[in-house]
Amino acid sequence: MRKPLLFLILLLGWIRADAALRFAGVFSDEMVLQQKSLVRLWGYGDAGKRVKLDVSWSDRRFSAPVGDDGRWELSVPTPAASYELQSITLSEAGCPDVRIERIQIGEVWFCSGQSNMEMIMRPDSTWRLFVENANEEIARADYPHIRYLSVARHESFLATEDLSDRKWQACTPQSVQWLSAAAYYFARRLQAELDVPVGLIVDSYGGSPLQSWLPDQVTQRPFYAPERARLIQCREAGAEKPEYDMASALYNGMLHPLAGYTIRGFLWYQGCSNVSDAARYPAMMNDLVDSWRSLWNNEQLPFYFVQIAPFIYPGYQLGRWAELAWAQARAAAEIPHSGMVVTADIGDPQNIHPGKKRPVGERLALLALSDTYGLQIESRSPEVVRALHVDGTLRLEMQHPGTGLLATDNESEFEVSQDGILFSRADFKIVGDRIELEPTLDKVRFVRYCWRDNARSNIFNSEHLPLGPFFIKIHEAE
After folding, report:
1. In 122-132, which positions are buried (b, 16+ CB within 10 angstroms) versus exposed (e)?
2. pLDDT single digits (tens) 20-49
3. What is the pTM of this model?
4. Helix 181-194 and helix 357-367: axis angle, to 10°?
5. What's the topology of domain 2-104?
């Protein structure tokens, strides 16, 4: 009986070791690693042992101890991007090797937010999700050098250490159906311009407010007392997990497990669930960017985000779209190494999920190509920097006009006011790289643009990037 018993003991020991040695869930076949970086790799093994790592692009062998918590971590240099397939082999004494294959080295972007980032290419009539020209785009989406990982929805009271079972996939007509449309169009433009593999980590949750993506140490501050009180009530009521819209719930469950996966930058598409909280949004956005950059230990990681599109919000949110959009623009002006995509021309006032996702993704790509990769292109929408009374005319001075402004029609979204409360429509004309208004009121002191839920911007710069909503005070010319 001793030999069978000994065999059983050895077998069980092998099974335990085999189960313990692994990479963290964010790493799998088909993944993309950031080029020319010291990429962070981590996983799990038997405490007290030592893991070894071999990578196909280097003759060097890497090793690290497994801590008392069963985790190991390594930093590995990567070469310049290429389409060559690579592999990584993880080993530990007494365990079968663990191998990741069909890896590519390229550019990696982290894509997060709520439903307009989560919105996949595949149509969904239940939720009125229809990407423009989706069927044609899906049919020809054979892009093996675009890879993505879509993170499963998960809420948690405490910081989660690992992901559920989701794997990286190469972009094919079959797999692209489940890929974020905005992220897909971003990657396609980036891959075409840079001629390198592009990796996307899509980590989004429909309906989520910004507060749910903030860490506990931030939401514990008095500024977030209402959100924190609701979370505490949920825990005291015995809930197993928080709701998706509670403070820190998604940071803990969906962001923390990915912390440190080496990326080039962040993309963010959110705001609809904060429409009634425009006054606090710039401060919250600053907190989000600071905390995410801190988690990745890089204060200069680019953060490009999308301004929410016009939509007729119901109930108490009616008429509040422009306030939140303007708050996002103010946040973009405050946050270093950031940029904002304007979508005031492509909204659907009857659908909070506008189908024109290609312009969104491509405008995000323009920001990355100019600000991150150094291409000499105009990537930002025209922006009013000053409004002046000059010789009886109201002049709007602009930045980012390109080689000149243009209007697609004569409909005016400009309004002027004497008191900042009651507004009247004002006609406009474009004079080169500035706009002149013909107010119907004397002594106007304020001007705003696209300040309606069903607004449509019709003024563009030479790169066909639209003027976004704004609300500013008018000054007298010196």
Report:
1. bbeeeeebbbe
2. 899 999 999 999 999 999 999 999 999 999
3. 0.94
4. 50
5. Immunoglobulin-like (2.60.40)
